[in-house]
UniProtKB/TrEMBL annotation:
Organism: Triparma columacea
One Pfam family hit: ABC_tran
Secreted in keyword set: no
Official protein name in the record: P-loop containing nucleoside triphosphate hydrolase protein
Record-linked PANTHER family: ATP-BINDING CASSETTE SUB-FAMILY C, MULTIDRUG RESISTANCE-ASSOCIATED PROTEIN LETHAL(2)03659
Amino acid sequence: MPEITPSDSSVELGNMFDRIVEDAIQDGVAGKSLLKGIFYHYVKRTKYTQIILVLESAAHILQALALGGLIRHIASPDSPASSGYLWASAIVGCSIYVMFAHHIYFFATWRLGMQYKNGAIASIYRKCLRLKSTHNKGGVVQNLATNDVERFFLAAIFLPYLLFGPIEALAVLAIGVNLIGWSFGIGYILLLLFVPLQYHLSQKFATVRAKVAKITDRRVELISQAVGGSRLMKMSVWERSFEERIEAVRREEIKALADANNLKAYNEALFFVCNVVIAAVIFTAKTQLMDETLTASDVFTVITLVNIVQFTMTKFFSLGIMGVSEVAVTITRIEAFMRTEEVSGRKVKTIEDEEDLAVELNDVTTYWDDDVSGVRAIGNVNLKVEKGTIKLVIGPVGGGKSALVSAIIGDQHPHTGSVSVNGTLAYAPQQPFIVSATIKENVLFGKPFDSKWYQEVISAVALDVDLEALTEGDKTVVGDRGVNLSGGQKARIGVARALYEKPDVIVLDDIMSAVDVKVMRKIWEEALVKLLLNRLKSSIILVSHQHQFCRDPIVGSNNVLVLDGEIRGEGTYEECISLSEGRLISGAAPEQTKNTKKSRKAKELSDSTPNEEDPLLPPPPPPTEDSNGEVGGMTSATEDTAIGKISAATFKTYLRAMSNSNTYYPFAGVMLTMLGGQALLIWTMAELGKWAEKSPSEQRSASTLATIWVLVGVTIVLGFIRSTNSFHRLLNAAFNLHSKMTRAVLSTKISFFDTRPLGLILNRFSADVGITDDQLVATIFDFMLCGLMTLGSVVTAAYALPIVLTAVPFLAYYFVGLRRVYIKASREIKRIESATRSPVYTALSESLSGLSTIRTFEGAEKFFSKEFQSRHDENLRAFFAWLACTRWLGFRLDAICLGLLMAACYLAVICRHHTGFNIEPAILGLALTFLIQLAGLFQWTVRQSAEAENMLISVERILEFADLEPESNLDNIEDPAEAVEVSEDWPQEGGMTFLNVKAKYRASLEYALKGISFEIKGGEKVGVVGRTGSGKSTLLQVIMRLLDVVEGTMTVDGVDTSKVPLRAFRKKFAVIPQTPTLFNVSLKDNLDPFGEYEDSAIWDALDIVQMKGVIKGLGEGLDYMCSSGGGNFSVGQRQLLCLSRAILTKCKILIMDESAANVDPLTDVKLQEAVKKCFAGSTVLSIAHRLESVMEYDKVLVLGAGEILEYGAPSELLKDKHGSFYAMVEDSRLEG
């Protein structure tokens, strides 16, 4: 792709749009808006192109007059040849100017539309980096940056016609009245009726468009939630629930789109019949009211003049109104987004008399969502953190710990009080922000590479062993959101990133919850104490539910803080527990000696490869490094693009999609109406020409008039039928394709979501679906309409002047070569443009998910902005190449048409004067009228055919997802003979047996589970422990059949689970995932998506998990809307809500994956009691790092490197002082 000019780069376009925004939406300045700002900017930028447009209009009018002169010359037997050549030269000369002016104007306005579109995208991204995390609306932003911004093109191209169209129409009126008489003015009255009608239709279109945009936001948001929470969706069997919700919103969207398309269809029908109807009215008035005689010159001068007005007023003027109406909605939505509240930024402390102070909070009160009338997060907090010290923050779930962190990092603005931070800041969130890049790039986060420091950091957070197990080491690309990493690995990458920053102040939000006790101890001793406190002299604020560190001497006597809405106490750990008023219990046991001997199995556990459960992604080529050893831009996930022309199968599938029964009949009906309408139009135009050849009495006869108006009437009716039918069928194809893709994506294997970034998937559901919904529909209809008009023009010209056919072979040969080159180039450029678009949206969605982290790190915003600009420029290069390519073709196609028109004009004069060939003026006039129209029409037809093929790439991309392989045995067993039917109350006992079970993520990888065998009796409570990467999460995926068993058998109550349909099987399990997920729906819909339970049952479940009081306090109760991902609840609260969801199901088997990782010890105790009470008699399988939670269980399963190290009752395992479990307990400071 050629390089773009600096003025077309992402940086410059973003700066341009930002300047318009800043000037337009200044607070307190009356009369300003973004719409006005862009309009004024547009007027300044297009002043020269508007002059070109005016001269082009003048050339069109002169050409129509010259055509009348040439027809009069042909009809007059005494006219000299010189006058014929003069009129022919005038027609050709006007065409030459029009050809140049047309392409200069359209290139300039297309480019300006591109600049507005991409300037808006760049500006939206910059705004996203300034958004408050609580205002994160991923679906809205995605829709703004994909669908809405496309509206700039139509407005940029056709806006000037709103002014110059009426001016041109008035000029044509004056000339027509002067040539034909007042009958021309009578026909113009009808045109005046068309204009307000089109304006009314366009106004309605703007209203409908605004409605469509809002519905599309909801649809994309739903899909975003389904994809982002794919694991929970599948384990909870919510695919159909999501599909039904998406389908319901999609039907609403299609209904609104159908209303919009009906308005477009009416506009197209008006355009189609306008010239015929107006010409018929003019001629009827001239013969019937004025009692004058028609001549062939009159007829075709009028038709040519009307054609000018037809294109200008019923096509370009209406497109201008439509474009302005649509872009007004877009700009209004962008302005509303730009006015969204931003983070205020953190204040850097520079108080000289308190040089030893690192962080200070003075009387700070904050509210969730910054709504003072809403829920208070923390109140009256006064906190001082000295340099080089560690402050541990503990407290119950929902106590405001995350709110305190948000206030310190500047993500939540204090309603009262102030927050000050002295020096640089780093942050490791509770849910780590992982981007789709290499592990190394995730750690560096845009910082220069310091090899020695990097290795120290990696070792301090215990990532060195993990990296050794990977083929590509730290150059391994992790999937979107770190899907191919364990929770512990993601947490340690987050800590390593913060540590690599060498910050003055580091904030760590519950980073220990996802790692095992041994890794936890190493992070504490090596990363926090040795590197941060001792070497860097950094200040640490550690939020944690792991209380065992509170008694460490390094903490000191006054550095433990208990937070429960307000600071309840600050001092030693024991003092804080006593001041918590019973809301906390001690989670740390007395110190024990560390010099416990480790057995061979314990050694095996601690040294086990931590990545056996990983990688789902194939190791890609490592990123390039420059000579200084600094890693360049982030390695982004890219899409595979097809090569070559669109396959016949894609065409066929799209055509069949027009029908709900998958047949070609609807397409055949569309083609018949299109052909019939065009044939009728040519017939009617020919009759209008022959009208002038009749005698004066015949011209006024009732039969002639009846013939003309019957043809006109049928043309009108068929014009409306074919446009509405075509738009309906093409939109139906878009609906069916979307439904097929949605069903396929929701039903496909989990590895699909693990190996593709969220932005890439959403690109199919936003940009590609937007193209099939809107642009492809209009483009295909335009191609069919203009293609038939082009064919009719050539046939009519050949009939009138057969000698013209001698020029056709040469022009056709040139045309075929042009089209072959263009189609091949433009198709591949369009594919590249589509493929480079996905990384742009991936960068957008990734940044939205990690706003707090990005903003906290010094230089990270600049780094991510640079990465976005790089990806954006790649897309801009492809788009600009496509734009230049279309102009290249259009100009040369118009040159072909110019050659044909030139041949027809000069050959007509030659035949008239130098041969005996008799030329009928009426037929010649009709042929030349069509050929003049052909100049722009032919290149538009060819370009639309190529554009339709290019847009079918979106169909190809949709079909790629629509043909995804579903999970095996989803609803039925593939081999019915092996199927096992289970009763509704299965399993009755909940017993599970694993016999030599082996599993791997891909055929090329080692086994993640290496032939494990064990038995769980019905009703037993079993804890699963092991260090990060030991196979715990893999075991969960195997149980839930997210990962297929390669060898061995898993049974539940004696039934081979592989012989039970997948969805029926998963319904029998209640799962609490490691990453608690809530969707952007009401709390009730989150807990009961199928509406199966009474409100009282839901309240009971919330009461059991200690969340009833919290929900009651929200005011809206169960109708409270959860933000996307559940961001308006703390992570601990989300885990409690997920537990309440599981309690409602009352399943016989409960699986908990680190369900107590983000709750305090007291809440953990209460949760265990709740599980005992609600799942008494049920089988419970709990994956845990917090060993206290499994000490009361019936059995403990210890995993290491995908193998079973130990399995038995906790009391029995603790008797073996050389065993793995005993070593883990010793490490966690528990009393045996």
